[in-house]
Structures are given as C-alpha cells and as structure tokens.
Design brief:
- This protein is an alpha/beta fold and 255 residues long.
- 29% of the residues lie in helices and 33% in strands.
- It contains 7 helices and 15 strands.
- A 5-stranded parallel sheet has the order 2-1-3-4-5, sandwiched between helices.
- It is elongated and about 70 Å long.
- The two termini are 37 Å apart.
C-alpha cells in the first residue's frame, strides 16, 4: 500500500491534492492507498510513517509564514526515512539550490501557482516512484524499523531475542535483544506479528520470540530459554505445545 502524506496550511489545497492523488491512483491502478493531510508540522511529525519506499510526502515549502518550514520538515523526514519520496510544492521556484544544503534529495518541485499541471506532474512523479519501488531490492529486509516514543529504532533481526507485552497497557510492548538491550515500543504484539509474520513465533499470548534466538527448550516443563536471557523462562502455552514445535521445525534450528 502506498502512503501519501500531505503537509499544507491551506485546507483548499489539501482537498485539491487529495482529489488529484485519488485520480492518479485510479489511473495507475493502485488499488490500496492511504492519504493523510496535515496543516501543522507537529501533527505530521507525530504521525510519521515507518521507513518504506512506498511512503510519499508532499510538502508545502512555506507554512504559516516560514519560507523554510517545508525544508526543515523534509530534513526531519529524510533523517527518519531514507526510502521515502519527498515532493515539494512551492511558489519560490528559485529554492531548488537551497535543498542541497538541507541534503533532502527531493524527487520534485512543483509550482503551486499552476494547478492545471498538478495532475500531470504528480502522475509522472508517482509513475517514477512505482518504477523505483518495483525494482527495489530491500537490502535491509532483515532490519526491522519499529516505533518508539522518540521516533523509530532500526534493529537487525539477528539481534532480537523476544518481545513481550507491557504491563502498563496493551498498546505498547518491550523488545529485548540478545545482548540485553531493552526498548519500549509504541506497538502491540499483534502489530508486530502482523507486520513481520514470518520472523517470529508465539509460544504464549504475551510473547513473540525469534526462533533463531532459542537456546534451549525444556520438553518436560514446556518452556524455552533464549540466548542472552538464560534466567528468563518463557512458558509455551498449554494446548499450543505441539503446534509451536511444528512451527519451530520450519525454521530448521535443530530442536
């Protein structure tokens, strides 16, 4: 699914862009798209997407009188998402050189004064994004991007031992690495399980484990121990023991 995030302090322009994006998506046969529009920088930052080549940010350069606001947001996005495409809308077409000092690598600059060409220009830009995305070899497919309170943390799959639910709420969880680092995530276990269905196993409703991090399994008492966490016994839920071992066997980890 492609995600389109619009940042523009003009509500009329937001509606125009949303309508154009839906028309472009229909013309390009994009069945599933997500469009969000924001008027304030802080609102976009609070909802920034996890890194993906399917993220497209369309930013007005000037917001609430600040001619460089869009560039500042673009820099923030680029720091947190190296794969996203960024398109600027501007009435200051001479700002192109300024972006280089911000190291944003913008896909395009579209003159805001020419709404008649918005459809054609955005369609060409999105076609380019689709071509780039279709050729994408995700060299970092074994690096997970996970939401934390301060933004996004990127963790190699090989470093992860397990996830567990947070006692303070079902809408958060904790990640533990093999070397005992701990991260509080703004994600439910079900979100992680849904986003990374082939990476983890669920021995118990409160845990997701990396099958390659399992150090031992106690067949008699039905619990497992993970690398780097020898004092933590993770129970395998009653009634799930056989199915868990069956799923574990698919990973060829030797148990």
């Amino acid at each position: 699914m492609f995600n389109f995030y619009i940042l523009d302090d003009d509500h009329t322009q937001q509606i125009l862009l949303e309508n154009i994006l839906r028309k472009v998506a229909k013309a390009l046969h994009l069945a599933h798209i997500n469009i969000e529009a924001f008027s304030k920088v802080v609102d976009l930052k609070n909802n920034i997407l996890l890194p993906s080549p399917k993220n497209v940010y369309i930013l007005d350069l000037e917001l609430h009188g600040d001619k460089h606001a869009g560039l500042k947001v673009g820099k923030y996005i680029r720091q947190n998402d190296p794969y996203a495409s960024i398109i600027f809308l501007t009435v200051h077409e001479d700002f192109l050189s300024v972006t280089y000092s911000y190291r944003i690598e913008a896909l395009d600059f579209i003159a805001k004064s020419n709404n008649n060409k918005l459809y054609d220009t955005l369609k060409l830009d999105i076609e380019q994004i689709i071509r780039k995305q279709s050729k994408w070899t995700f060299s970092n497919e074994n690096i997970l991007s996970l939401k934390v309170s301060t933004g996004v943390v990127r963790i190699p799959l090989a470093d992860i031992a397990y996830f567990t639910t947070s006692s303070k709420g079902a809408h958060s969880s904790f990640l533990y690495t093999k070397d005992n680092r701990q991260y509080k995530l703004n994600l439910k276990l079900s979100d992680i399980e849904k986003n990374y269905p082939k990476f983890f196993l669920k021995p118990h409703r409160s845990y997701l484990v990396n099958p390659h991090a399992i150090e031992s399994i106690n067949y008699k008492e039905h619990y497992l121990v993970l690398l780097g966490h020898t004092h933590t016994k993770i129970n395998i839920a009653r009634g799930q023991y056989r199915s868990f071992l069956k799923e574990l066997a698919k990973y060829d980890v030797g148990y």
